[in-house]
Every structure is written in C-alpha cells, then in structure tokens.
Amino acid sequence: MKLFSYCLRYDDGAAPNPFWELCTLAICKPAIRRAANIGDWVVGLGSAHSPIGNISSCIVYTMQVTDKMTQQEYDEFCRVHSPYKIPKWNSQKFEHRVGDCIYDYSQGTPPTLRASVHNESNREQDLGGVYVLMSRHFYYFGDKPIPLPTSLTPIIHAQQGHKSTANQPYVNEFVAWIENLGYVPNKVYGEPQLKKEFILAPDIGSHCARRDREDDGYDEEPSC
C-alpha cells in the first residue's frame, strides 16, 4: 500500500470530483493516475495561497483507490452507473457542471471532448494519465480542511509534482489517523474552495483549462 500526496492548488470540484457518493480522479495529476493502484491512498493537501488562506498543512481530501479503469471504461461506466459524472455544462447546478467524465468514446477513438472544465489543450495530459482512479472510501473536506497532526507533516509536499516513496514510513499511521477522526466516509463535508468562480467568472472553462494544463506539466516531473 502506497500513499501519494500532493498540493491541491485548485480545488474546483472537478479533480477530484467527490460528488454522487463516488470520488473520482479522472483528469489532472496524470502521473498519479498512472502509478496509483487499488488499495493505495491519495491525499490532496491545501495550498499556501488558497482562497481561504494558508492551508498547506491541512488535508482537503483523501481517497483510498477502490477501482481503477481506463478513460474509455470510465465513459462506459458513467453512462450506465453514474450519469451525473458526465458534465452538463449549461446546467444551473454546480455539481452537474464539474462532471469529470469529459471524454466521449461512443463514436470510437479518439474520443470527442464534452463541454467541460477542460478544452482541447488539456487532451494530451488528461489522456496521458491513461487511468481514472475511483474511490468508494474517501473523505472530502473542501473549504473545511483538516489539519495534519505534527507527526504526519512529513507527507506535506509543497512543491510541484507529488510524493509517494518518501511517504512509505507514514502510510499506516496516516490510515489509522484518518479512519479514527470520527468522520463517516463517502460524504462531502465542505464546498470546493473555488465553487464561487463558476458563478462569478464568465469564462471559467478557459480559465480552468489553462490553470490545470500548467499545473499538470509539473506533475510529470520526478516524484519523491
């Protein structure tokens, strides 16, 4: 079992997407999506420059990977089992807009891109991650992040990219800690920190696409 940790600079509800009782990481973080396996844990830590202040020592979300599938398999899965993960870009409901099943394989390959938080400039990095990580055992705190105990601060990764190998001594302690905080798994305890952007920014799609493209470029750098 491995523990992947990274700084979640842009918590917008799309990556991860914690809605509909299923947490998914289908876009962004291509290196983690390729490397993480069933049973591993992924931790998104807060940013020092988040909209709610410096939360760099806090957990925004964590998920244990309970399934892993290709983008095409995910598209097929969502059509049958989780249709709300398919984005409805013109919807008034926030959770519908940030759906992360953004690649449509119904006409074969290459897939078409659904109207969503990403555009064609994100295609290479999105599909370069190959897999979608799914979790039916997760904790999402959003704008109500949870501080790490001092003994677990070594898993903080303030730089670009992510940590995994260096986290190995802390895996069991982290799991015991998060499981004993008293939170019921598979619930959304806070709002995505950037939710207001979807109400206030007229060109939010292009903005998200550009921001995530830049961040994902760093994700491909060597991890530690």
What brief labels describe this structure?
25% helix, single chain, 224 residues
Structure described in brief:
By secondary structure, the protein is of the alpha+beta class. It has one domain.
What features would you describe in this structure?
With 224 residues, the chain is of the alpha+beta class. The protein has one domain. The strands form three sheets. Strands 1, 3, 4, 9, 10 and 11 form a six-stranded mixed sheet that branches. It has a three-stranded antiparallel sheet with strand order 2-8-5. A two-stranded antiparallel ribbon has the order 6-7. The chain is built from seven helices and eleven strands. The two termini are 16 Å apart. A hairpin with a 7-residue loop joins strand 6 and strand 7. 25% of the residues lie in helices and 18% in strands.
Write the layout of secondary structure elements.
Elements lengths: L2 E5 L15 E3 L4 H6 L5 E5 L12 E7 L2 E4 H10 L13 H4 L5 E2 L7 E2 L9 H6 L2 E5 L2 E3 L5 E2 L23 H9 L7 E2 L8 H4 L3 H16 L5
Parallel strand pairs: 1-3, 9-11
Antiparallel strand pairs: 2-8, 3-4, 4-9, 4-10, 5-8, 6-7
Structure class: alpha+beta
Q: Total number of β-strand segments? A: 11
Flag low-confidence runs.
Answer: none
Rg, rounded, reads 16 Å
The secondary-structure element order is EEHEEEHHEEHEEEHEHH
Oligomer: single chain
Percent helix among the residues?
Answer: 10-25%
**Gross morphology:** globular
How many domain modules? 1
Number of helices: 7
Beta-strand portion reads 15-25%
Mean pLDDT over all positions? 92
Main sheet makeup = 6 strands, mixed
- Distance between the terminal alpha carbons, to the nearest Å? 16 Å
